[in-house]
Every structure is written in C-alpha cells, then in structure tokens.
Amino acid sequence: RIMPFSTLEDRLGGGIDFSALGTPAGGMTSELLDRYEIGTWTPTLSGPSSISYGSQVGKYSRIGSLVTIKFYVSTSFTSGGSYFRLEGLPFTAGTTSGNLIGFSYQNMESGIVPVFYTVNSTTYCNAYELNANSIAWVPPSAATKVIIGSGSYTVQ
Question: What's the pLDDT score for residue 88?
Fold first, then answer.
C-alpha cells in the first residue's frame, strides 16, 4: 500500500518516520527508517595458500541494521591452512551472534551444509560444515574452485 507523502516525515536527513501510519507492533523499538543502501563489494578468501582469483563479485543491500549479501568467487589455491574465511564484508558485523550465511562450493559432499558464521565486530566470517553429527571448520581444499552464497547479517 502506498501512503501519501504527507503521512511520512523526512527527518531532515535522519530517516523516514513511519509513526503516523498506525499502531506499532508489540516489542517494536523504532518507526524510523534511518538507512537504506545498495551497492557492490569485493569478496576475498583467506586460509588456503597461494590464492588467485578468476572472478570476485559481491552485491549487497542494507535496510536499517540488516545487511543482505550475495557473492560469487571463482578461485584456485593450493590446500593448506587451518581455516577458511570469507573477508571484505561491506559492513562490520554487529555484536549479536548467530548470523549464518549459506554458501555452496564445487565438489561439495552429499549431506554437508556449508555456512559462513559472522564474527562479531569484524568484516569477515568463518566457514563451517554442518552435518547430522557435528559442526566443524571447512577444511581448505584445492578442489574448491567456485564459491556461491547469500545471506543476511546484522550491524550495530
């Protein structure tokens, strides 16, 4: 439903105030939309040795404190390292834990659910594999050539 502009108040650069539109939902803390942005970012990887990139594409949208990202990385590297990390997130992650960003990769095993887990107050996330029995670091593998993912995380 589109409301007449007169019911929305631009707060002189402070955002759009929706308080005139009706009764607030239970637990709501604000009716002010103070941030909207879309753009691109360059995803990078760390952990494995000798990383070279064929393509690095990232897009994001930010509405308030919620950032949604999409990314595609084609790469080659030698195996090694004790971790696998996606770096260069467009905004610093907030201090609330539990931000999982799903992804898939070439040569993924059946029954494995790979996720990137944001690290509080940083611009990177660590890779984990979830399966029926455990959660573990994704081991860097020279067979991984394409990584595609999307998800959302919160910022402060």
Answer: 96
- Distance between start and end Cα atoms, the chain: 29
- Residue type (1 letter), 114: P
9-10 and 113-118 strand pairing: unpaired
- For residue 36, the one-letter residue type is Y
45/154 Cα distance (integer angstroms): 21
Residues 107, 144 contacting (CB under 8 angstroms): yes
1 Cβ neighbours under 8 A, 6+ residues apart: none
Measuring CA to CA, which residue among 92, 68, 63 is closest to residue 156?
Answer: 92
The SS3 of residue 111 is: coil
Beta bridge partners of 9: 17
pTM recorded for the entire structure: 0.78
Number of Cβ within a 10 Å radius of residue 34: 13
**Strands 9-10, 100-105: parallel, antiparallel or unpaired by DSSP?**
unpaired
Contact 145, 75 (CB under 8 A): yes
Token look-up 């009716």 returns: 31
Neighbours of 104 (CB within 10 A): 12
Residue at token pair 């502009």:
5
- Dump pLDDT digits (tens) for 36-87: 999 999 999 888 778 889 999 999 999 988 999 999 998 887 766 667 889 9
